[in-house]
Structure prediction request, 229 residues.
Amino acid sequence: MITLLRLKLPETLRAVAPLIGVVCVLQFTVVGASPAVFLQFLAGSTLVTLGLLLLFTGVDLGILPMGRFIGSKLAERRSLALMLGVAFALGLATTAAEPDVLVLAGQVEAVSQGALTSQRLVYVIAAGVGLFVAVALLRVVRGFSMAWQLTVVYGLMIVLSLVAPSEMVPLAYDAGSVTTGVLTSPVVLALGVSAVLAERSAVEDGFELLGLASVGPIVAILLLGWLER
Prediction:
């Protein structure tokens, strides 16, 4: 584990260093915040770096191997119902724990003054991801045309964008952009690539899972807005 932490440290520093660097430059050239505020920023940045280091290490150490193992076992079982059920459950659970989704939901609750609670929004987004991951995996198993599947899914998204309340459209697309984050993407890819049939393309089918996982929350939120308008 110590070796893995050392390997992940440069990756973590590359992720946070640009932000810290820009803020430091602004601090000494333009902003000039008080020492207390700047020290608070540095302390928070240190905690973020440590948190990301532990998160990246945990994903590689336990979550990815288990995702691959589950995917391979599902392929061995050859049970479509089981495969789709597990895909939905994993998509739901990982999205509900996705840090970016939690941040977005908290901001929406604050801006809407509780009209749309963070818990409700998180589970709507998570359900959308889980459902569309299952739909993508269904195509992997059945082998029907990806072009037709994407045409139907994106057509539905466009139609809902036109009929849903205008204030829900930006939120829906924001939700689509934050779902495939540091937790959801590795799990969905590990599951999909391991579960594909031997004669199919793991790269093509695996990344299709991510594509539909991004569309799922968009459709779910637009549908929620249309039903409640």
The first helix runs from residue 2 to 31. The CA atoms of residues 71 and 194 lie 5 Å apart. Residues 1-63 form one domain.
